[in-house]
Write a structure and sequence with these properties.
Elements (H helix, E strand, L loop, with lengths): L6 H13 L4 H8 L3 H11 L17 H13 L4 H7 L4 H11 L19 H9 L4 H8 L3 H11 L3 H20 L4 H6 L28
Helix pairs in contact: 1-3, 2-3, 4-6, 5-6, 7-8, 8-9
Length: 216
């Protein structure tokens, strides 16, 4: 993680890079900071060009040459690297002039995040009215539960009360399905019978045929 520096320290580094011939190591020693902090500030402000000579100040460009570079940048037919080669300058110098003039977007600028597609609010409301849970709705419409809540807050302000009633109704339904018969109902239930036989036929004592007799 890069070192954190205050605005005052950054201004001091910019001043030394701009107005002195001290190299990065000397500036780092002077301010008791690492050389990486100095180079980071230099890169941010495009002050010195270290592509050829580490101790050189930014390449001096005549007003005429600078105007040629500006015209080439505005034409947008050549890349900054091609302009640098054509004008016999470093990429750094072309980038510094481009930044100062604000002609082209900074190539190091992070890409803007793609805008998220609009939420299917009507589908969210419909699924909720059908009794779906927030999690189920979020899976169906491929969004977060938090987004589902936001839509319901806007479209159905009383949705929490409705959701609570739905939950209670579902719970009661499950309880009714899982309810076991009472002891009284079990006693009153008739024993199972087998077709073609009576209950007595099942007992070994009900018929003399079921027991073999032996004479002594």
């Amino acid at each position: 993680m890069p070192e954190q520096i205050s605005q005052a320290e950054e201004d001091k580094i910019v001043d030394l890079l701009t107005n002195t011939t001290m190299n990065c190591l000397q500036i780092a020693a002077e301010l008791r900071r690492s050389a990486s902090v100095i180079t980071m500030v230099n890169k941010k402000h495009l002050i010195r060009d270290y592509s050829k000579n580490k101790n050189s100040l930014a390449t001096k460009v005549t007003p005429e040459k600078r105007q040629q570079i500006i015209n080439l940048l505005k034409e947008n037919l050549l890349t900054q690297q091609e302009i640098a080669k054509l004008m016999d300058l470093s990429d750094f110098t072309i980038g510094r002039i481009n930044k100062e003039e604000g002609i082209r977007p900074n190539r190091w600028q992070p890409k803007a995040k793609d805008e998220a597609p609009p939420l299917p609010e009507d589908d969210i409301v419909l699924l909720f009215q059908e009794g779906h849970t927030l999690k189920s709705i979020s899976i169906n419409v491929k969004t977060s539960v938090e987004n589902v809540r936001k839509v319901l807050n806007n479209r159905i302000p009383e949705w929490k009360v409705i959701a609570a009633k739905q939950y209670e109704a579902n719970r009661n339904t499950l309880v009714a399905k899982d309810k076991k018969p009472s002891v009284l109902e079990s006693k009153e239930a008739k024993p199972p019978t087998i077709a073609g036989s009576s209950a007595n036929a099942l007992s070994p004592w009900s018929s003399s045929k079921s027991v073999k007799s032996f004479s002594i």
